[in-house]
Specification:
Chain lengths: ~375, ~260
């Protein structure tokens, strides 16, 4: 009898229960989808600026007949649409990957930075800098400059996540009920403190804050990208190294440890990474909810829960979906603009309810 | 070789395990028996590095407390009493998680085929594509064993024996699969590895164990070969049950019938 194992690598590509092949195809398709979303976002908007002409100009040096129109279009595409697209991709990827990582960490598909108070904590940090930046926190803002806002949001998110993890996890098992309830309590506390700050804010700050809290990619500039981009990119770059550990964590903390995973380090890296990514996202775009829960959930249905594929796929789909949501936000009430957080909530909240209904009886609440 | 000297574990200030001396040799199945709550699982958790303990545990000559998780994972694999899984993994994906540590010990390139081989070992041929959550409790337990086996597929690696820690490996299994699993353990030991198993079935213990460690209220009540350890007196003292230990004429293998209760 021939030893089956000799045919190992060849057979493996068609092994039952192995979804890695499908995952690779999905990731490839998501790359194409993201390219399409970028193109769509570049070409659509309140203005009739032609991105095709502008891009053609950059690439091939072709200049349209009317130089004035060309300059205006170039400005719109390069200084308004492009930074907004890049910021949207960064924020979408950050939120979706953070959701996937938190779900792996809490071992539960319902964990989401927005739902369990991490975003609220980040908001508190950010609002504190916006309102108190000129007075009490002036030394901080003077020292850190444009980094003060994302850093404050990071600290707020980190504090919330750490408290949440301590409260919700006993002996390596996370209670979902405790996690959600503790998240609600922490979010309420953070929002109350944010409320005090808003109470102290002046009229101009107030208007800024309201729109910022609803979530928007409006006002994206290259400067904003320069301040939060590196944080998000660093956090996202660290996440793939957590994938195998998070996979093992699905079997519980003890078993992950038996398999050789340094569980404590994994947990803290994940918490810091998520806080950084969410904090930076909240700092520039406010409260954009549900991306972190919808994207990983859809992808798990498609390619399974293996984080080695789930995390990159989440980044791609999160970026694409946020670009589409932003395109809707920009055009649906044009020339005015809907806060994107409203768009993601209108689409995401019913989806979340649907997950709950489907999982009722399966997820131990 | 695993050697534990004077191992004690306190949980929330209460002593659960006190002063256990224990050893597990390659080539042997060491069974830990004892009534519910006697500290068997707690002791095994200390051995596997999961719980803080006082005393000394040496794993193949190295002090367990100084080893990193990834180093420990090379020397031993642990099958817990129960495992819950939080996401819809397929059976194959669960078994493949056993390879996270990366030292299964099979030849390079054969890891890809290992999940299927491990599943065949536990009599789950053809289950690779099923979802773990859809399986029965006994099937899930065998999937977990397949995962554990693939972590230490070669019983000896780099000239050192590797160990299987099994916490009630057959408790949820039918009689056929109880025997299959115990035979896997025995085979693992015969090929140079070592097995530490918590067992409740005294007859299976008598049949398969090379050495029995009897625990009672957190302490070691007796140790030795099944024939030396399993006696009427010990069973009454430890399990609080007046039973008679019988011996089959062939092979001198002790057995304990619940029907013999006085």
């Amino acid at each position: 009898m021939v030893d089956q194992s000799i045919a190992g690598p060849v057979m493996a590509s068609v092994s039952e229960g192995d979804r890695s092949g499908r995952a690779r195809i999905v990731i490839l398709l998501l790359c194409l989808g993201l390219a399409a979303a970028v193109f769509l976002s570049l070409t659509s908007g309140a203005s009739d600026a032609s991105a095709v002409n502008v891009i053609g100009g950059w690439l091939f040096g072709t200049v349209p007949d009317d130089a004035a129109v060309s300059a205006r279009d170039s400005l719109i595409v390069y200084d308004i649409r492009l930074p907004r697209i890049i910021l949207g991709m960064l924020v979408g990827a950050a939120l979706a990957v953070s959701g996937a990582v938190m779900q792996g960490l809490f071992r539960n598909p319902l964990a989401d930075p927005g739902l369990i108070g991490v975003s609220a904590g980040s908001s508190l940090g950010a609002v504190a800098v916006i309102v108190l930046g000129a007075t009490i926190l002036a030394p901080v803002t003077a020292l850190l400059g444009t980094l003060a806002l994302p850093l404050a949001a990071f600290c707020g998110g980190l504090a919330t996540t750490l408290v949440l993890y301590q409260v919700a996890t006993r002996r390596g098992q996370t209670s979902v009920a405790t996690m959600l309830l503790a998240g609600i309590a922490l979010a309420a506390l953070a929002m109350a403190l944010t409320g005090i700050l808003i109470f102290m804010a002046d009229d101009r700050q107030l208007r800024d804050l309201t729109f910022w809290q609803l979530g928007s990619l409006g006002g994206a500039t290259w400067a904003k990208i320069a301040s939060v981009g590196p944080i998000i990119v660093l956090a996202l770059a660290a996440m793939p190294f957590l994938a195998r550990g998070l996979n093992a964590l699905a079997l519980g903390e003890a078993t992950a440890g038996h398999l050789g995973i340094p569980v404590q380090r994994l947990k803290y890296t994940a918490i810091v990474g998520v806080s950084a990514a969410v904090g930076a996202s909240v700092a520039v775009s406010g409260g954009i909810g549900f991306v972190g829960i919808v994207v990983p959930h859809l992808l798990r249905l498609l390619i399974g829960p293996d984080n080695r594929y789930l995390l990159p796929a989440s980044a791609l789909l999160g970026a694409s979906l946020l670009l589409l949501a932003d395109a809707v936000a920009r055009t649906i009430v044009a020339p005015a603009e809907l806060p994107i957080g409203i768009v993601t909530a209108i689409a995401g909240a019913p989806f979340f309810l649907w997950i709950l209904l489907r999982k009722r009886g399966v997820v131990d609440l | 070789m695993i050697e534990a000297k004077d191992v004690s574990v306190d949980i929330a200030g209460k002593p659960i395990v006190s002063g256990i001396d224990f050893h597990a040799r390659p080539g042997e199945i060491a069974a830990i028996v004892g009534p519910n709550g006697s500290g068997k699982t707690t002791f095994l958790k200390a051995l596997s590095g999961e719980l803080a303990y006082t005393g000394r545990v040496a794993l193949n000559g190295r002090d367990l407390s100084t080893m990193k998780p990834v180093e420990v994972a090379v020397h031993r694999a642990v099958l817990p009493q129960a495992t819950t899984l939080s996401f819809p993994f397929t059976v194959r994906e669960v078994v493949k998680l056993g390879l996270v540590g990366g030292r299964s010990g099979v030849l390079p390139g054969e890891d890809a085929r290992l999940p299927e081989r491990a599943l065949a070992r536990v009599d789950l041929d053809g289950f690779a594509g099923r979802f773990y959550q859809e399986l029965s409790g006994g099937e899930q337990q065998r999937v977990q064993l397949a995962r554990v086996l693939s972590q230490v597929w070669a019983p000896v690696l780099d000239g050192k024996p590797r160990f299987l820690f099994l916490d009630e490996p057959v408790s949820s299994l039918d009689i056929k699969h109880q025997l299959i699993i115990m035979n896997i353990a025995r085979d693992f030991a015969r090929r140079g590895g070592g097995v530490v198993a918590i067992l409740h079935d005294l007859n299976l213990t008598a049949m398969y164990a090379d050495r029995i460690f009897v625990m009672h209220r957190g302490r070691l009540a007796a140790t030795g070969s099944p024939r030396d350890v399993l006696s009427d007196d010990l069973i009454e003292k430890v399990f609080d049950c007046r039973l008679r230990v019988g011996v089959l004429p062939a092979g001198n293998m002790p057995f304990v019938l619940p029907q013999s209760a006085a």
